[in-house]
Amino acid sequence: MVVTSNMSVDKYDAVVIGGGIAGLTAAARAAQGGLRVVVLERGTADQYACNSRYSGGILHIAFHNIREPEAALVEVIETATRGKADPQLAKAFAANAARTVDWLCAEGVQFTTVGNIAYQQWVFAPRRPLTPGLDWKDRGADVTMRLLERNITQRGGEVLRGTAANSLIVENGRVVGVDAHRNGTTVRFDARAVLIADGGFQSNLELLRENISSRPSKVMQRGAATGVGDGLRMARQVGAATSELTDFYGHLLSRDAFNNELVWPYPQCDELGVAGIVINARGERFADEGRGGVFVANAIARLDDPLSAVAVFDEQVWQGPGKNARIPANPLLVEAGGTVHSAPTLAALAALIGVPAIKLEKTIAEYNAALAAGTLAELNPARSSKPIPGNAPIPTMPVSKAPYYAVPLCAGITYTLGGIATDAHARVLRESGEPIGGLYAAGSCTGGLEGRSGAHYLGGLIKAAVFGLLAAEHIAELVK
Ligand SMILES: Cc1cc2nc3c(=O)[nH]c(=O)nc-3n(C[C@H](O)[C@H](O)[C@H](O)COP(=O)(O)OP(=O)(O)OC[C@H]3O[C@@H](n4cnc5c(N)ncnc54)[C@H](O)[C@@H]3O)c2cc1C
């Protein structure tokens, strides 16, 4: 079934591009339905890197339990995305999340729970330890992926490593296969349907420059760096529409992440900058910190110099939110060798971080006064102080109790929120809204649910699994 170009071939029912959680879920479901399926995966290692493997393994929808009633989840999605999520996608997502987890359980996937934390009731087992740096081998997501792959192959499917999809083959307006690079040659895979699940474009510097940051090399890759936008390119070449591509899911990281692998992807610095403030090289606030770490990370990436932002906070933040995070900066950032400046006065702190003392004192005086007077919304930029639905709650606190702290930040990009336009069956859509025959997309390469400008991270794993499952089920209908 694998042949070099120009030879006649037996068709696969489904070719899946990318072996992350979206692709493996789809392939396992398709193979379960009796379909002949192959996953093309660029990675060569047995446990090839991808965001799914690196993940914390928490299945949640906007920090809510995926088993909340469908209507409640739809409301959460609408509120968190400020009404920007495509309503059909939101409904399909909410309606199928619990069923997808049931299906994963039936596949043999093991889950664990973390106390009574509502959004951590479905965590791939064994849970990732709460330690700094990368730690994914033999953790829940890695174990889950190996299990899904075993199920695929036991049902007659294939996962071909070292195989990079390059272009879609179109005949009479339908996608009928994929050309891929494998062992130095181009190999043609004919199929009744193709699913793109390549994980996004966060690691394509040109696409980042075009859509997200004028200085993409100064945005830290907070993931496996395997999402290079091949799926987006291939889909566009055959006429696919996209959502806006301007936003990403990521976090505030210590700037040391560029040269210290112990300070990413954890601990995150969201709690420090969101409970306190984040300033630029002039000592001024430049974003609404109250909208959360993902929002501020996007704002940092858009700065002329994305390596100029600094979180400024005080002793109460350091001993409070700084310690209470899931994998806390206090003390893990210090233990991992990350930079944490502290000083008894704001003037001394300003000297340590190289911003004008008068400016820093003014910025903090205005912020503290507005917080005390309840006028944060009048600041420029305005500061939200109420919990934002769909965010992990972090309080808004004054910068008033010495010692004062400063942590140089960078924006860590995990995956792009915008991408290929799809419908509730994961079919890829043209600008006209019509599906492109034979073409599907799932996971972080898709937009519309999370990916419109200012929209919101809703949970990458469950999104990938739900739409991978729905794609496989629709392809099974098509094949029948
Ligand atoms: C540190 C970290 C922690 C996270 N924690 C969580 C969490 O707790 N909960 C949560 O919901 N989300 C979390 N996420 C996000 C989540 O991991 C992703 O949203 C999700 O895994 C995306 O799955 P995917 O299948 O779409 O993409 P991926 O897992 O990125 O898989 C895509 C695959 O496609 C392959 N590929 C790319 N291009 C090609 C090509 N041309 N041909 C063939 N193969 C190709 C890649 O090699 C890769 O293996 C986390 C991510 C990171 C990095």
Short description:
It is built from 15 helices and 21 strands. It has helices at about 20-30, 50-55, 70-80, 85-105, 140-155, 205-210, 230-235, 270-275, 295-300, 315-320, 320-325, 330-335, 345-355, 355-375, 460-480; strands spanning about 5, 10-15, 35-40, 60, 65, 110, 125, 160, 165-170, 175-180, 185-195, 220, 250-255, 275-280, 310-315, 340-345, 405-415, 420, 425-430, 435-440, 445.
Main sheet specs: 9 strands, mixed
Tell me which CATH architecture of the largest domain applies here.
Answer: 3-Layer(bba) Sandwich
The proportion of strand residues reads 15-25%
Mean pLDDT: 95
Based on helices, strands and strand pairing, what is the structural class? alpha/beta
Summarize the amount of helix as a percent range: 25-40%
Counted beta strands? 21
- Helix count, DSSP H or I runs of 4 or more residues: 15
**How far from one another are the termini?**
20 Å
Bound compounds, each kind once, are: flavin-adenine dinucleotide
Task: Tell me the overall shape.
Answer: elongated
- What is the name of the CATH class of the largest domain? Alpha Beta
Summary tags:
480 residues, alpha/beta, FAD/NAD(P)-binding domain, Flavocytochrome C3, Chain A, domain 1, 2 domains, 9-stranded mixed β-sheet, 15 helices, binds flavin-adenine dinucleotide
Verbal overview:
The chain is α/β, with parallel strands linked by helices and 480 residues long. The protein has two domains: 3-245 and 417-479, FAD/NAD(P)-binding domain, CATH 3.50.50; 251-413, Flavocytochrome C3, Chain A, domain 1 (Alpha-Beta Complex), CATH 3.90.700. 32% of the residues lie in helices and 21% in strands. The protein has 15 helices and 21 strands. The protein has helices spanning 21-32, 51-54, 70-80, 87-107, 140-154, 205-211, 230-237, 270-275, 293-301, 315-319, 321-324, 329-335, 346-353, 357-373, 460-479, and strands at residues 3-4, 12-17, 37-40, 60-61, 64-65, 111-112, 123-124, 158-160, 163-171, 174-182, 185-196, 220-221, 248-254, 277-279, 310-314, 341-343, 404-416, 420-421, 427-429, 435-441, 446-447. Strands 1, 2, 3, 8, 9, 10, 11, 19 and 20 form a nine-stranded mixed β-sheet that branches. β2 (12-17), α1 and β3 form a beta-alpha-beta unit. α1 runs parallel beside α5 (140-154), α4 packs across α15 (460-479) and α13 crosses α14 (357-373). The model has no long low-confidence stretch (mean pLDDT 95). Bound molecules: flavin-adenine dinucleotide. The site of flavin-adenine dinucleotide has 40 residues, from α1, α2, β9, β17 and α15.
